């Protein structure tokens, strides 16, 4: 094993690629709640008697993916196929894009009302990474990445951002494909072997593994450490501060 320095990373790492929701900000819970309300409303009216959307459904089928992929993959798990519709479909349309619109409305309303909470351990880690001279990227499926980073107050610690808007513009496939993480490394001038991926989603850890990144840190916020490891995380922590303390 390569030597691990004070950041808890192999010495070869020059670039840190952070997922946003659930890794740097507490917004994964906001997304989970918005998805649950959206899918439960849909299931009640279109598939009465079906089991409600659960945390396990979120972890397996939705978390980390582009919004429309999450809709399609969860519905497919219940044997439901909907017509795609068009991007920006109204929130009451029974289409993939309509359901995606409804979910986004709920997220934006929640963020507008309660703001963005950060994980203090993650902000401390971001500062340590910058002080050590490493470059940073946020790599997120969220189309609201820029607003969330700004509201969270750590924009000055992030060198580049690959979010849902950038991915759509550049035709990058979402997680579990490695494309968005590879784009982040490329923007910072390194190959995957010199970059580390920080992820709380099973799909995101799988993307880190698929891209042959130098190191993959799984961040367990919901008690699924074993599944993160099974997807290919090199180490699993509950908080990034564990890496600074050398406890990981
Ligand atoms: Mg996440």
How does the overall form come out from the CA principal axes? globular
Instruction: Give the mean pLDDT.
Output: 95
Low-confidence stretches: none
Straight-line N-to-C gap: 14 Å
**Oligomer, anyone?**
single chain
Main beta-sheet strand count, sense and barrel state: 6 strands, parallel
Number of strands: 6
What is the CATH topology of the largest domain?
A: Rossmann fold
- The CATH class assignment of the largest domain is Alpha Beta
Ligand catalogue = magnesium ion
Spell out the blueprint of helices and strands.
Elements: E1 15-18, H1 27-46, H2 55-62, H3 67-77, H4 96-114, H5 120-131, E2 135-139, H6 145-152, E3 160-162, H7 164-170, H8 179-187, E4 195-199, H9 202-210, E5 215-219, H10 225-230, E6 235-237, H11 241-244
Parallel strand pairs: 1-2, 1-4, 2-3, 4-5, 5-6
Helix pairs in contact: 1-4, 2-3, 3-4
Bound molecules: magnesium ion.
How would you characterize this protein structure?
This protein has 248 residues and is α/β, with parallel strands linked by helices. The chain folds into two domains: 3-26 and 117-245, Rossmann fold; 29-114, DNA polymerase, domain 1. It contains eleven helices and six strands. It has helices spanning 27-46, 55-62, 67-77, 96-114, 120-131, 145-152, 164-170, 179-187, 202-210, 225-230, 241-244; strands spanning 15-18, 135-139, 160-162, 195-199, 215-219, 235-237. Strands 3-2-1-4-5-6 form a six-stranded parallel beta sheet, with helices on both faces. β5, α10 and β6 form a beta-alpha-beta unit. The radius of gyration is 18 Å and the shape is globular. The mean pLDDT is 95. The chain binds magnesium ion.
